Amino acid sequence: MADKKSYYVNVIESKDGKMAEVINFNFGGHHDIGAMVENARSAGIFAKDKHAKEFVLAMRFMHHVIKKNADNPLFAEFAPQFEAFKHSVKSKLGCGCSCNKE
Fold first, then answer.
1. Coil, helix or strand at residue 31
2. Residues 46, 57: contact at Cβ < 8 Å?
3. Pair 24, 11: CB distance under 8 Å
4. Are 101 and 95 spatial neighbours (Cβ–Cβ below 8 Å)?
5. Are 99 and 2 in contact (CB under 8 A)?
6. Which of 56, 71, 84, 93 has its CA at 20 to 30 Å from residue 47's CA atom?
7. pLDDT tens-digit profile of 59-97?
8. Taking a C-beta distance cutoff of 8 angstroms, is the pair 63, 86 a contact?
9. Residues 6+ apart with CB under 8 A from 30
10. Which residues contact 50 (CB under 8 A, 6 or more apart)?
């Protein structure tokens, strides 16, 4: 089994030269987010490095929320399409770990 990783996410708004924390939370799983970002960068599918980072975080967050809220009607129509998209991305970029899990 892959090692569980833990990340701390902190979003800070910069406005008029001042910094203000907007949200923060812990996020975990078995995927290596750094490796996933590097895979996305290496694939050359994004014009900017920043977009590779945003994409990986968006995918991981969305996957986590859908998985933890599988019975939520909000995701009823979207979950199957997201799952197919996730598998397509995973086949092109890998999953960021060596466990072959989602």
1. coil
2. no
3. yes
4. yes
5. yes
6. 84
7. 999 999 999 999 999 999 999 999 999 999 988 887 766
8. yes
9. 1, 2, 3, 4, 5, 97, 99, 101
10. none
In degrees, to the nearest 5, what angle opens at C-alpha 98 toward C-alphas 94 and 102?
60
CA dist 78 to 1, 16, 29, Å? 29, 38, 22
Tell me, what DSSP letter sits at residue 74?
Answer: G
Residue that is written with structure tokens 């599918």 in the block: 45
| pLDDT confidence band for 102 (50 / 70 / 90) | very low
The pLDDT assigned to 99 comes to 58
CA 64 and chain centroid, separation: 8
Kindly give, in sequence order, each residue whose CB lies less than 8 Å from that of residue 48, ignoring residues fewer than 6 positions away. Answer: none
Contact indicator for 2, 17 with CB cutoff of 8 Å: no
CA distance 15 to 75: 34
